[in-house]
Amino acid sequence: MSAPSPSPAPAAPALELDGVEISYRVRGRTLAVVRDVSFAVARGESYGLVGESGCGKSTIALAIVRYLAANGRVSSGSIRVDGRDVLALSGRRLRELRARTVSMVYQEPGRALNPTIRVGRQIAEVFELQGLSRREARERAGEMLARVQIADAESVMARYPHQLSGGMLQRCVIAMALAARPSLLILDEPTTALDATVEAEVLDLIAALRQELSTSLLFISHNLGVIARMCDRVGVLYAGEMVEEGPASELFENPRHPYTVGLLRCIPRRGTSKTRRMLDPIPGFLPDPGSRPDGCIFAPRCALARERCRAEPPPLYQSGRARLARCHFHEHAHTLPRSEQAQGEPSAGRPAEQVPLLSAARVSKTFRQAAHQVHALQDVTITLAAGETLGLVGESGSGKTTLARVLLGLTGPDPGGEVTLDGAPLAPLARSRTPAQLKALQIVFQNPDAALNRRHSVRRLIARPLSKLGGYRGEALARRLTELLAAVRLSERHLPMRPVRLSGGLKQRVAIARAFAGDPRLVVCDEPTSALDVSVQAAILNLLVDLQRRQGVSYLFISHDLGVVRYISDRIAVMYLGRLMELGPAERVFSGPHHPYTEALLSAVPSLDGVRRERIRLEGEIPSAANPPAGCPFHTRCHRKLGRICEESEPPLLEVEPGHQLACHIPLAELGREPAAVPIGEHVER
Amino acid sequence: MSIAVPDPQIAAHLEPGALSAGRRQRWRELGRELLRQKLFLVGAVILLWWIVAAIFGYQIAPQNPYAQNLTAINLAPSGAHLFGTDNLGRDMLSRVIVGSREILIIAPLATLIGTVLGAALGLAMGYLRGLFDDVLSRFVEAFLALPLVVTGLIAIFAFGRSNTTLIIVIGIVFAPLIARTVRAAVISERELEYIAAARLRGERALYVMAVEILPNVLAPITVEFTVRLGYAIFAVATLSFLGFGVQPPSPDWGLEIATNYGQVTAGYWWEVLFDALAIASLVVAVNLISDGLEAVLER
């Protein structure tokens, strides 16, 4: 390398932020979105930044390489990379810094690559920037891809980004980021857009490369589990301020700031289920950007806040070795009261009665795409009892959403299958169903922004289904509207607002109110909380559980978050390539013996509970549903494959014990013999 | 240990500003953003001037635009006649001012008809899809191949010259163009989940189109209206120029240019230039407004 950059002082940390304040100018007002943030990442260290959306994590990442938007600037403080003051660098030096010293990996790998240039070329460019010839650069690009565990580097290099899966793309982006051998790698939610199984692999890869290349990491994520797994030290951001910092292991075990305590309590874990306890959401809201209360920034939402907290902003207290907490009462943070302990009668878990509420028998769905057929669903048979929650899990592309759409009548199934409600067959499409049937099945979508008409007021969004499905008119409608608002914890004040004015959690409440307007019997929840922050997720899950307890509604709950599914479900169905692999009571599916695929899914989840466990690697990618493998569809990735039988014959879904069905050639007793993974469900709530 | 925690979500948006949130506030915000755009302002001022001229033309005009003065023909612009006079000695400035009237009636009405028809067509095509969409799409494509002026000429020959014919013809020719834009907007809208939610309530197609989708595609429709308005002004001027639009002795700009353009070779350029500039200013103004609206609405 020809860079004549001044060699940094040997002791200088890879990254050092000192009293950084970042502000945006919006409509003539200057809003400070990051205030007085200081932290350092030592050489070779992995530092995690956690916080909910709007806390300033990404703003900090952008400021480090001076990529802030035109209206944003670092208004005070200093940022040093390798001892060099980033804010004082000239244009040329800044380019050099970005080319050689710092690399960034973002959330969406598809948007980090140029769609019109072959992947190999894009990686080679990084080497060319360092002065290598085209040929050498190409070779090095190949080596780099091999390093990120891409088996067939040559063929991958010749492909365009759209021809690669999300996991592959993110590896390519990581390869590019590491090509310059940066001393600091910034990862901004690098696995948030990926499936849990792929996420686990990418995380393993990053951890391995970090050892190999001795790069320092700044790892940004909202996912506490991921941070706990990847980082040595962690900083917790709240509303633009660092509220707590410490070694990852200690911080999550023994948090010293009420916000961290609250955040950890929001997450359903250690096998918690709705029958045992409610979740603890953090009350209140983030302060508006640019405004801050006089005292502690968290005081308005803190159940421990006293006079002093509201008057006097706390400094960062030293709280034990290498621990910092911005709380006057950091020694007492763990005494943060829980909101509600009481949980009534478990709502469901009733075994299927004589006639199930809803049943789908041998439902298939084939999509025709150009020349080939995609079997999105194949012979799926499920039943749902009244008041029961069936969790539906599987990687993306496994057919979860298609199944939900078929049940609802939004997508017509292939002829042959049958969906019945109370034993009476349902027309395949919603438009030919009777009003009573339409009323019975409703849905809460993942993304409330798309699911709510943005031009309609909350009143209209809820009143229309009330009159259309519930048949309410005039006085009765107004009364029912008020009741429904109260049931989802919205107030009259929200009625004239349009969705834009509402936060994500409030929007999802409107969507839930809409789904419940016609007193449904079954509500499909399609990832209802994955677009939300964990503290809001907890409140929404509590609401769903509460509504179920009071109205006896059934849920079909789709989620990729196994902790959430475990919390809310009575029974769980595991899908793979459009087929049901396992179906059984939640605790049985989680504790095992379970299907090898279930086992792999469970072991992929980054856990906060400090149990180090051997992870089961799933070989390769989920096969295309257009061309599924012969025999057991999972055999290509299965870690417990028996041999020819798995490749040749597809195992039927058999009842291996009462209420527990499995599709695997390995007998149940055998499956149970090797408890390779410690599943989430085994730990008892402390 | 238990504590009464106020429900988090109810505490939302306590700022008084958010409470009165409604239609009015949204319009006020839109207006404020539009006014911040200089080019939009320029366009709006020019258009406003021409609208005032169209309504109060006779009051504003310094002289009677029809009064002939054979002792003052073909006078070059001067203090007495800022835009000069024509070959009948009529004051050009007054004629240009009054000449805005008919074009500003015909063009917007024609565009309005085209927009309403086109939006209805586009909504139906985009929402219903299938055979209906396939067949109509072919018709739309065929229409797009027809030049407006030629179609206009044919219709005028067939139905006779009148402003009504002009309005209807331009409206009908515009409808497929607008339909195409609206259809594209509707297609992306119908994939959103609020449409699925409406179907799960058993809403009729007409309701979904009119109540659920239409409000969400009003922005592209508004922009399309202003874009087409520019074309309509141009088309009316062209047809008048060709002698198939507004009839004499109206001081209409296109007609004036047609009547006077023989005089240009004799050196009387002012008898054409100011009418041409008037047309240009109106078209440019409408386009500036259209750009401004697009920037604000389509975000």
SSE layout and pairings?
The complex is a heterodimer of chains A (686) and B (299).
Chain A: E1 15-26, E2 29-41, E3 46-50, H1 57-64, E4 72-81, E5 84-85, H2 91-101, E6 102-105, H3 109-112, H4 119-129, H5 134-147, H6 153-157, H7 166-179, E7 184-188, H8 196-213, E8 216-221, H9 224-230, E9 233-238, E10 241-247, H10 248-253, H11 258-266, H12 307-311, E11 317-318, E12 324-325, E13 358-369, E14 372-384, E15 389-393, H13 400-408, E16 418-421, E17 424-425, H14 435-440, E18 441-444, H15 448-451, H16 458-468, H17 474-487, H18 504-516, E19 522-526, H19 534-551, E20 554-558, H20 562-568, E21 571-576, E22 579-585, H21 586-591, H22 596-604, H23 644-648, E23 654-657, E24 660-662, H24 668-673
Parallel strand pairs in A: 3-8, 3-9, 6-7, 7-8, 15-20, 15-21, 18-19, 19-20
Antiparallel strand pairs in A: 1-2, 1-4, 4-5, 9-10, 10-12, 11-12, 13-14, 13-16, 16-17, 21-22, 22-24, 23-24
Chain B: H1 16-19, H2 23-35, H3 38-60, H4 92-98, H5 100-128, H6 130-144, H7 148-159, H8 163-190, H9 193-200, H10 205-213, H11 218-241, H12 253-264, H13 270-297
Helix pairs in contact in B: 3-5, 3-13, 5-6, 5-8, 5-10, 5-11, 6-8, 7-8, 8-11, 11-12, 11-13, 12-13
User: Helical region count of chain A?
Assistant: 24
CATH uppermost class of chain B:
Mainly Alpha
Q: What is the SS-derived class of chain B?
A: mainly alpha
Approximately how much beta-strand content do the residues of chain A carry? 15-25%
What overall form of chain B do the CA principal axes indicate? elongated
Largest sheet of chain A: 8 strands, mixed
The SSE order of chain B reads HHHHHHHHHHHHH
Share of helix among residues of chain B? over 70%
Identify low-pLDDT runs of chain B.
Answer: 1-21
List keywords for this structure.
heterodimer, A: 686 residues, alpha/beta, Rossmann fold, 4 domains, 8-stranded mixed beta sheet, 24 helices, 24 strands, 32% helix, globular, disordered N terminus, B: 299 residues, mainly alpha, MetI-like fold, 71% helix, elongated
